[in-house]
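User: Just a sanity check before I run the rest of the batch. Below are the structure tokens for the first item. I only need the designed sequence back.
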């Protein structure tokens, strides 16, 4: 199932909206408005604070309160979600700016790989499936399309699988972390070149550079690498170069 509703190629300026009124109305939605956990009101304010002034194209995975907000901010907002009560509540809400929204129905695991991105994305909120490896999968399909300066929003970073992704992107040269509000993270796409999707230069990624090689003692990723990371990388490299090869190998494998 990959059904697109309300597809609209024309990009028109968003209607002049009274954002204060919209935020006040969104605040009235109670947690039972849909059954999957609403984007927090604090995160709503942070999103407004951090979004580019002129968002033309945006997307989100999952649907709900955030969709009501984004439909009023962006003239072309694409929502990738499963057909459930969250979608129904959103489509029935008078706060939804329906003409701005295209809904792609189905699990993002299936719909995102098939989706043809026709524009750069100025704002992306990942808040769909949270089980491993789906947040990473969503990221893989979305990051190549983010425009310089785009806002990347990761919700529910208290969930370990989402937190893994958050830690990776917050250290990557493609993103500048802006702020974390409750359990929602906001990052800005920098002008750094996009990491090629068809190569494997893992050793150039900051996340790997700062941790490699993990130690096998006492368990992979145990306390020793974390203590080691307190020593600046340049110092570690000099010390490593000065150690005899066999000692180096023993330290890595022990
Ligand atoms: C945490 S809620 C999103 C809350 C929403 N951002 C809000 O502001 O109210 C997660 C959403 O992801 C949807 N979802 C769950 N699994 C999904 C999947 N595999 N693909 C797409 N959407 C999914 C759920 O239906 C739900 O709408």
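Assistant: Here's the designed sequence for the first item:
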């Amino acid at each position: 199932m990959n059904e697109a509703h309300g597809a609209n190629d024309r990009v028109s300026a968003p209607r002049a909206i009274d954002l204060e009124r919209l935020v006040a109305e969104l605040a009235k939605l109670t947690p039972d408005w849909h059954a999957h956990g609403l984007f927090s009101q604090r995160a709503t304010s942070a999103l407004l604070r951090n979004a580019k002034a002129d968002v033309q194209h945006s997307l989100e995975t999952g649907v709900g309160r955030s969709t009501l907000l984004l439909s009023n901010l962006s003239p072309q907002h694409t929502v990738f979600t499963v057909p459930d009560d969250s979608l129904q509540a959103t489509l029935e809400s008078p706060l939804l700016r329906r003409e701005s929204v295209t809904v792609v129905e189905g699990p993002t695991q299936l719909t995102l790989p098939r989706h043809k991105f026709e524009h750069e994305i100025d704002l992306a909120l990942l808040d769909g499936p949270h089980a491993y490896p789906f947040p990473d999968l969503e990221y893989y399909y979305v990051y190549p399309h983010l425009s310089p300066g785009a806002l990347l929003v990761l919700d529910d970073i208290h969930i370990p699988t989402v937190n893994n992704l958050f830690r990776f992107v917050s250290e990557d040269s493609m993103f500048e972390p802006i702020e974390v509000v409750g359990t929602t993270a906001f990052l800005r796409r920098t002008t750094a070149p996009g990491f090629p999707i068809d190569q494997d230069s893992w050793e150039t990624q900051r996340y790997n550079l700062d941790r490699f090689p993990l130690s096998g003692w006492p368990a992979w990723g145990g306390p020793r690498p974390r203590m080691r990371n307190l020593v600046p990388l340049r110092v570690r490299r000099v010390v490593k170069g000065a150690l005899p090869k066999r000692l180096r190998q023993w330290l890595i494998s022990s």
